């Protein structure tokens, strides 16, 4: 399938470009057996003007007819190519980076190309945070429309649920985004199926608007316009959200 690249896409994000946009659809908890709980999910991959992709996933339990029952999870984070940081990269905190990007063109990006398990692609660095005091740090690999991630570290707050390690896989098949997530809760446990889903892209592009500096009132209006398209199924009609995803 041909992938249409945004004309203003940072060269460093080209390997991730097929993920950009908003995806919606249904999945199953656990192994996906007939009696496992069904869920509806909305996932967004968005450009933010930096050489990273911002990730957000919201998930609601659903009944067998696809009607939304209640929210169960939200997670947010950042996906980027794994490379050595330079003065062009901002941080820590609000420290601005140099105006000249670290990777200026396709030739610079190609220097990062590597092979894993016989597949030619790029190493990934992914951070995902959850409510409840859990942050996952993933090392991974993207090879065309396929992604494999495995935790290189998990940080838990004092009262967080047990969470030792995880793997995630993503793939684009017939224009649908498939993913699977396996988790080991306690140290020494084997990884077990946690969930999987099949999502359809409902909004392409995935680029956030630049900051509006026209004043507080204008900025508030712009924020409202941006958020208006992100209302969850519970905020409107669950059946409407389900029907859109199933089309």
Automatic annotation (TrEMBL):
Keywords: Heme, Iron, Isomerase, Metal-binding. Pathway: Nitrogen metabolism. Binds 1 heme b group per subunit, that coordinates a highly solvent-exposed Fe(III) atom. Heme b binds at residue 194. InterPro entries: Calycin, Nb(III)_bact/plant, Nitrobindin, THAP4-like_heme-bd. Pfam families: THAP4_heme-bd. It comes from the Bacteria. Its EC number is 5.99.-.-. Residues 12-201 form the THAP4-like heme-binding domain. It is an enzyme of class 5 (isomerase). A motif (GXWXGXG) lies at residues 21-27. Residues 212-229 have a biased composition (Low complexity). Residues 202-247 are annotated as: Disordered. Its cofactor is heme b. It catalyses: peroxynitrite = nitrate. Forms a 10-stranded antiparallel beta-barrel structure able to accommodate a hydrophobic ligand in its interior. In fact, this fold hosts the heme group, which is located in a wide surface cleft. Belongs to the nitrobindin family. Heme-binding protein able to scavenge peroxynitrite and to protect free L-tyrosine against peroxynitrite-mediated nitration, by acting as a peroxynitrite isomerase that converts peroxynitrite to nitrate. Therefore, this protein likely plays a role in peroxynitrite sensing and in the detoxification of reactive nitrogen and oxygen species (RNS and ROS, respectively). Is able to bind nitric oxide (NO) in vitro, but may act as a sensor of peroxynitrite levels in vivo. This is Peroxynitrite isomerase. It comes from Pseudoglutamicibacter cumminsii. The lineage of its organism: Bacteria, Bacillati, Actinomycetota, Actinomycetes, Micrococcales.
């Amino acid at each position: 399938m041909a992938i249409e690249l945004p004309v203003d896409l940072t060269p460093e994000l080209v390997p991730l470009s097929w993920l950009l946009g908003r995806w919606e659809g249904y999945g199953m908890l656990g192994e996906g057996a007939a009696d496992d709980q069904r869920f509806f999910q909305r996932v967004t991959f968005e450009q933010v003007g930096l050489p990273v992709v911002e990730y957000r996933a919201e998930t609601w339990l659903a009944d067998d007819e696809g009607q939304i029952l209640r929210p169960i999870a939200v997670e947010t984070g950042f996906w980027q190519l794994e490379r050595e940081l330079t003065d062009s990269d901002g941080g820590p905190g609000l420290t601005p980076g140099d105006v000249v990007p670290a990777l200026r063109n396709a030739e610079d990006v190609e220097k990062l190309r590597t092979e894993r398990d016989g597949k030619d692609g790029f190493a990934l660095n992914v951070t995902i945070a959850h409510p409840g005091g859990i942050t996952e740090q993933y090392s991974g690999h993207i090879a065309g429309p396929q992604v494999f991630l495995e935790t290189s570290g998990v940080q838990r707050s004092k009262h967080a649920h047990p969470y030792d390690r995880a793997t995630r896989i993503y793939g684009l098949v017939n224009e649908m985004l498939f993913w699977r997530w396996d988790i080991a809760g306690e140290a020494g446990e084997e990884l077990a199926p946690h969930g999987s889903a099949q999502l359809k892209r409902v909004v392409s592009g995935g680029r956030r608007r630049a900051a509006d500096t026209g004043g507080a009132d204008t900025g508030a209006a712009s924020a409202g316009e941006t958020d208006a398209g992100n209302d969850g199924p519970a905020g409107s009609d669950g059946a409407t959200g389900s029907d859109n995803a199933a089309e």
